[in-house]
Amino acid sequence: MTHAELPRLGQGFYWQDLHEGQAFRTFSRTVTETDLVNFISVTGMVEAIFIEAGYDGGAIQGRPVPAALTYTLIEGFILQTMIQGTGLAMLELTQQIHGPVLVGDTIHATVTVTGIRPTSRHGRAVVDSRIEVFNQRGEQVMTYTARRLLAGR
Fold this sequence. Notes:
This protein is of the alpha+beta class.
């Protein structure tokens, strides 16, 4: 077998490998203070509730993290395990926040394929999915739908 013929570790799913109703569970990840500090530093989300521990004007007890950080951590799992090398574009995203995520919370998600529509170009397909994010207590903290363009074989 030549080098080019060897299977690639971490290769994502081609759309033909998926079917409507198929579901996956991501790994879990504990959100750390370092995650929060790095994220707000890079994005400029230096809102008082994120940069001041124990901020008096906040409505959330504890050390909340931006919902955008929660979303990107889950998307990192999806990218690394499901669409690495096959994801071509994020086409649409709709997000609902159900509850806060705090520093120290451990999050994971379920990903359910809700639709697959092959395109007329290059064997690609538009793949829809519903992503439900949970904390360590099993509380749903976020739901989002994603429409992505995936490569085909």
